[in-house]
Design goal:
Largest sheet: 8 strands, antiparallel
Number of helices: 4
Shape: globular
Distance between the termini: 27 Å
Helix content: 25-40%
Oligomer: single chain
C-alpha cells in the first residue's frame, strides 16, 4: 500500500471511471437533491449542515458523509422519507461533483412511494431514463435478493444519475440515488 491518493489523483480517477459511461447528449438539467454540481463548494455544504444541525464526518480528503437527513432539508417531498446516509464527493478544487443518498430498511410500500416521487421528478426534468431494470412496484420489490433489483439510469455527456433498489438480508430493502457530474474533456 502506497501513500494515500491526493485529491487531484482521486478526481482524475473518478472522472476517468465516469467518462466510460458518458452519453452523447448534454443533460437538459442536472438535478442533484437541491445542490448544484460543479458549483456548490465543500464550504457551502459545511454551512448547510451546520444550519440544519446535521452530523457530518469527513471520510477521506474529498468525501463528506452526513447521517439522518430529513427530506425537507433536500427540498424533496416528505413522502421520500429521511435519508440514512448522504455522501458528498468533491473535486480537487473542492466543488461538489457527486452525491449519493441511501435509505435502508424500507418497506416495499415506502420504497414504491419514494421511488415514484424520485423517478417522476427525474422524468419531468430529464425525460425517459436511458435504461430501466425491473419495476418499482410492491410485487417486484417484495421479492428476495437479486430478484427485487430495480433501477433507472440516465447517461448524458455531462451528467449521470442512478436510482436503484434491492433487498439485502441484513439491511432489508435499500434505495440508492446517485448523481454525478461528468467533466468535459475527461
Amino acid at each position: 500500500m502506497g501513500p494515500p491518493a491526493t485529491p487531484e489523483q482521486m478526481d482524475k480517477a473518478h472522472q476517468a471511471a465516469l467518462s466510460t459511461q458518458r452519453g452523447t447528449e448534454v443533460a437538459p438539467s442536472r438535478p442533484a437533491l437541491g445542490f448544484k454540481l460543479d458549483q456548490t463548494t465543500h464550504a457551502d455544504i459545511d454551512a448547510w449542515a451546520d444550519r440544519a444541525g446535521i452530523a457530518c464526518k469527513l471520510e477521506r480528503q474529498t468525501v463528506l458523509i452526513c447521517k439522518s437527513v430529513a427530506p425537507s432539508l433536500l427540498g424533496v417531498p416528505d413522502v421520500e422519507g429521511p435519508v440514512d446516509t448522504l455522501s458528498f464527493a468533491f473535486d480537487a478544487k473542492e466543488r461538489l461533483v457527486d452525491i449519493t443518498a441511501m435509505r435502508i430498511h424500507l418497506s416495499p410500500e415506502a420504497a414504491v412511494a419514494t421511488t415514484a416521487a424520485i423517478t417522476s421528478s427525474l422524468e419531468k426534468q430529464l425525460g425517459a431514463p436511458h435504461t430501466r431494470i425491473g419495476a418499482f412496484d410492491t410485487e417486484h420489490l417484495s421479492q428476495k435478493g437479486v430478484a427485487a433489483l430495480s433501477s433507472v439510469a440516465y447517461r448524458f455527456n455531462d451528467y449521470a444519475v442512478d436510482v436503484m433498489s434491492n433487498q439485502f438480508q441484513r439491511d432489508g430493502l435499500i434505495l440508492r440515488e446517485h448523481y454525478a457530474s461528468i467533466a468535459n474533456g475527461s
